[in-house]
C-alpha cells in the first residue's frame, strides 16, 4: 500500500474536511511519561545529542505511534535546534531546561549564520526520512519549528523565563536591531521547515509558545508578521504546504493568527475555549484538552473528550491537548483518550 | 477639607463616570524601582515583617503618592497575607519569592482557621487607618486581596510555579476537598476585605494573577464563582462596595468576569487589547500599558499613552499597567506617564 496523503486523516482535515472520528495526536506525545522513552533517553548524554542521533530520535518519534496508534507522528526534536544551528550555543541542563549564550546586541546577531541551518541540521532530516519509511501509510508525519518570536525570546534571555522581559524590552526599545535577529530566524526557520518537507514530512506546526508575553502592538510586529513571512517563505518552495500555528497565550487575539498568517489550522491553548468567538466556521481548529485532565483520567477524561468532540461536530477539527503531555501522565490515559475519540467520534 | 468620596476621581470612574483626564495609578507603584523604597525595605528583616509593621507599610504606601501625585494609593501588602493568617506558614526568601507549607490534603485544610483572619491581620488595618489619615483628600485608598484560586494555587504548590500543575490536578481530580480549601479562602478573603473597608479603604481590588492557568470549565468553578461569592460577601456588610477584578491571563474569557462576578471594574492585562470584543460600553476598564514600555520610555511611552487615552475616550476608564511595575523601571518614566495622562487626557 503506498502512502497517499489522501489516506491520512490529519491531512484531510488540514485541507478543510470535517471527519468522524476526528484525527488525534498530542503535543509532546513522545516524552518522559513513557517508560520506553526514559529507557531510550538514558542512551544519550545531552538532550541535543539525543535529538541529533537519528536512531534515537527515530525510535522516540515512533514509540507513541506503536503504543497508541495515533493519527500523526511528530518529529522528535526541539524548537531550539534552529537557534543552535544559527550558532547560539544551546545546551540543556538536567532539571533546568535550555541554556543559551545570550544574544545581547547587534554584534551577537552578526555572528549568527542563517545560511547553513539546513546543513547543520542534516541529522534531523535523516530522522525525518527514516521515520517516513517506517510509519504506517495512514499516519501523517508532522515537522515543526518554533516561531521566530519564541525562539528570539529564548536567545535574548539565554534561558526560559516567566515573562521574557529582556526580549520584550529589546523588541520595544530597539526594534531596528531586534528586527535583524527576527530576520535571521525567519530565514533559518524557512530553511529548516523546507528541509523537513523535502525529507518527507507531510505537514508542519509552528509553536509560538510565548505569544502570551506580547502586547497587541508587538504581537503584530514580532509574532504575526514573522509567522506570515515564514509561511510565505515555505510555500514559495512548497506551494500549498499545510502549516498549523499554535499561538499559546494569545487569548483574545488568537483569531488574528487564523486571519493574518496564512495558517492552515490554529492550535488552541488550554485557557481558550474551542468555541472562541470571531473565528469563521471553516477555520481548522486543533486542541485543547487540559493536560491535567489527561493526568486525572476517569470520568472527567471521558466527559471532557465527549464534550470536545460534541462541540466541534461538523467542523474541521483535530483532537489534541491545549499544551504538551506532562511527565506525570499515566500512559494508559493516553490510550483511553484515543479509544474515546475513535468511539465518540464514530457517532 | 474633608475627604468626600465624590472628590476622588478613581471612585467617580468606578461608579461609571467617564473623566478627562482619567485617573491613574499603577499596580506595584510602591516597590523596588524606587530608591526610597529600597532604603525603607532594608529596615525590616523579612518581607512579611515589612508588611506587618505599620510605620514601614504606611511609608511604602505613601512614597509613590508623594513623588508622582497619583490618583490612588494602594495599601502596601501582599496577596499571601490571607494564606498566612489562615495558618499556611508563609515566608519570603530573597530572590526566590514566597514559600509556603504546602497544603497537600484534607487534613491540612482542616488546620486552616478562617475565623481569626481579621484578628491576625490587625497590623494591616492599622496601616490602612494611618494611610487614610495622611492621604490628600482627592487621593483614593485601594485595599486588596488575592482571589481565592490564585491564593489556593500558591498554597497547594507551596511556591510560585509556571503552571500551578499540582493545584490544577487537585482541583480537577478531587473537587470536593478542593472546595473546602476555596471555601476557607472565600471566608478569609471576605473578612480581610471588609476589615480594610472598615479601616478606611475607599475601594478594593481582587488579583486573580493565575487566571491563565485555568481551563474554561475550571475557570467557572474555581475562579468566577469564588470571586462572585467574595464580592457578594463583602457587599452584604458594605452595600455598593467598589471592587475591581484583575483576571490576568483570562484571555477570551476576560469578559466573563465583567458579566458574572458583580465586579465594578475589570483590570485588563498586557496581552489583551483594551478594545476587547464582547464587553458592554459601560464596563469600567483599567489598564493596560505594557510594563516594558514604561521601562523603555521616550517616544514609545508618549505614543502608547496617547493611544490608550484616545482608544478609551468617552468610556469609564482608569489608566494603569497591564501587570506590575518592574524593578528596572526608571522612576522618571512614571512621572512622565502621569504628566502625559494629565496632559493628553485634559485635551
Short overview:
2 copies of one chain form a homodimer. Chain A has helices spanning 9-14, 35-41, 47-51, 54-68, 81-86, 106-110, 117-120, 122-134, 148-157, 165-173, 175-198, 216-237, 254-260, 291-296, 298-311, 331-345; strands at residues 72-74, 91-93, 97-99, 140-146, 203-208, 243-247, 265-267, 284-289, 317-321.
Protein architecture, described:
The structure is a homodimer of 347-residue chains. Chain A has 347 residues and is an alpha/beta fold. The first copy, chain A, contains 16 helices and 9 strands. In chain A, strands 1-4-5-6-7-8-9 form a 7-stranded parallel sheet. In chain A, strands 2-3 form a two-stranded antiparallel sheet. In chain A, helix 4 (54-68) runs parallel beside helix 8 (122-134), helix 9 crosses helix 10 and helix 9 packs across helix 11 (175-198). Chain A is globular.
Secondary-structure blueprint of this entry?
The structure is a homodimer of 347-residue chains.
Chain A: H1 9-14, H2 35-41, H3 47-51, H4 54-68, E1 72-74, H5 81-86, E2 91-93, E3 97-99, H6 106-110, H7 117-120, H8 122-134, E4 140-146, H9 148-157, H10 165-173, H11 175-198, E5 203-208, H12 216-237, E6 243-247, H13 254-260, E7 265-267, E8 284-289, H14 291-296, H15 298-311, E9 317-321, H16 331-345
Parallel strand pairs in A: 1-4, 4-5, 5-6, 6-7, 7-8, 8-9
Antiparallel strand pairs in A: 2-3
Helix pairs in contact in A: 2-4, 4-8, 9-10, 9-11, 10-11, 11-12, 15-16
